[in-house]
Write a structure and sequence with these properties.
Shape: globular
Subcellular location: Membrane
CATH topology: A middle domain of Talin 1
Number of helices: 14
Transmembrane segments: 6-24, 36-57, 69-92, 139-159, 165-182, 203-221, 227-250, 271-293, 299-320, 332-350
CATH superfamily: NCX, central ion-binding region
Largest sheet: 2 strands, antiparallel
Keywords: Membrane, Transmembrane, Transmembrane helix
Strand content: under 5%
Protein name: Sodium/calcium exchanger membrane region domain-containing protein
Number of strands: 2
Number of domains: 1
Structural class: mainly alpha
Helix content: over 70%
Radius of gyration: 20 Å
Membrane topology: Multi-pass membrane protein
């Protein structure tokens, strides 16, 4: 098949996998409400669904013996996703009316009363005038700081020469790390539990989502294999700059939907929960089959930029207007600039 056709197959596979993962998010959101978790803490849980396509792709790439695709996708998606999601959330919050409030008030236990809705809308209008994407302050210490701890653990397990690469024991450690990450988010982000009802249709959609996720992940990996072979590039490069970018694109639509609904904090910070799952749960299938690191410079530069992007995310939230947490326009551009710097470093120094 011509490369153009395989490129189309890759895009379709990524969107199918994302659709399947999205169908898993609804039951997880219900669990979040049932357990009484705030939107920030719930982001760590819902991140399992958000990262479902990455988990599926890594599993399929490990099964097919092309683990470099999964490794490249894992690193590349964790770099591009943060500026992509923050930029999307900022743009949506500036250009569209939000249907229920803003990031500041998501976790306040809103009961939907008219007076409270008016206050929420007034708050959003103020932030719009200030060019501020308001983010709940818990996003840093509940999600970002522990995520940086996860990245440090990945570096310790995979960078030193005696243990370089992904090995089964590393997968066990990272799986345990995610359980700790999830536990601390739950403990530090509790609210009042809600009564929720489960419908048969929801269960059916969840099953359909799992099937679509598997099919989409398989198609994505196969298409990437064909494209990298046709272009004559390594599978790791293909995973970094083809699979990672394509699999991140569906997140634009998901972020737009969540932010437009008024869940600004959840829509913006869920990317950190997603990335935490990618570096822990999605790490496991690659570690099980063992992945050596042949191009160490390419690996450590990418892992470094994964950490830089995450650190910038947390730092910039705190550098906004006095008394506020979030992203002003210059901060969004600064985050985008980090990704541009990454591309320059890869193109002119690493490759």
């Amino acid at each position: 098949m011509p490369l153009l056709i395989w490129a189309g197959v890759l895009v379709i596979g990524a969107f199918v996998a994302h659709w399947g993962a999205d169908k898993l998010s609804a039951p997880l959101k219900k669990v979040r409400r049932q357990w009484g978790l705030t939107s920030v803490a719930g982001g760590a849980l819902v991140g399992i669904a958000a990262a479902g396509s990455e988990i599926g792709i890594n599993t399929i790439s490990a099964y097919r013996g092309v683990s470099d695709i999964g490794l490249g996708m894992m690193l590349g998606s964790n770099i591009v996703s943060v500026p992509l999601i923050v930029t999307t959330a900022y743009f949506v919050s500036r250009t569209e009316s939000l249907g229920g409030g803003n990031g500041e008030n998501e976790d306040s236990g809103s009961n939907g009363s008219t007076g409270q809705s008016n206050r929420l809308e007034a708050g959003h209008e103020q932030h719009r005038q200030e060019n501020l994407l308001r983010i709940g302050r818990d996003a840093v210490h509940v999600l970002t700081v522990p995520y940086l701890g996860i990245l440090a653990l990945v570096a310790i397990l995979t960078v030193p020469e005696p243990v370089r690469g992904l090995q089964p024991l590393d997968g066990v450690v990272m799986g345990a790390a995610y359980l700790v990450y999830l536990g601390q988010a739950f403990m530090r982000g509790r609210s009042s539990p809600e009564d929720v009802k489960w419908k048969r249709k929801e269960i059916g959609l969840t099953i359909a989502g799992l099937v679509a996720l598997a099919a989409g992940a398989y198609t994505t990996v196969r298409a990437t294999e064909k494209i990298v072979a046709g272009l004559g590039i390594t599978r790791l490069i293909g995973g970094l700059f083809i699979t990672a970018i394509v699999t991140a694109l569906p997140e634009i639509f998901a972020t737009r939907s969540v932010v437009k609904s008024g869940q600004v904090t959840a829509g913006t910070t869920s990317v950190i929960g997603d990335n935490a799952v990618t570096m822990t749960v999605a790490f496991l299938p690659l570690a099980v089959v063992t992945v050596p690191i042949d191009n160490f410079q390419l690996y450590w530069v990418n892992l470094t930029f994964v950490a830089i992007v995450a650190a910038m995310f947390g730092l910039l939230i705190h550098v906004g207007s006095v008394g506020e947490h979030g992203f002003e326009r210059w901060q969004v551009l600064a985050l985008d600039g980090v990704y541009l710097l990454y591309l320059i470093v890869i193109a002119f120094w690493v490759l």
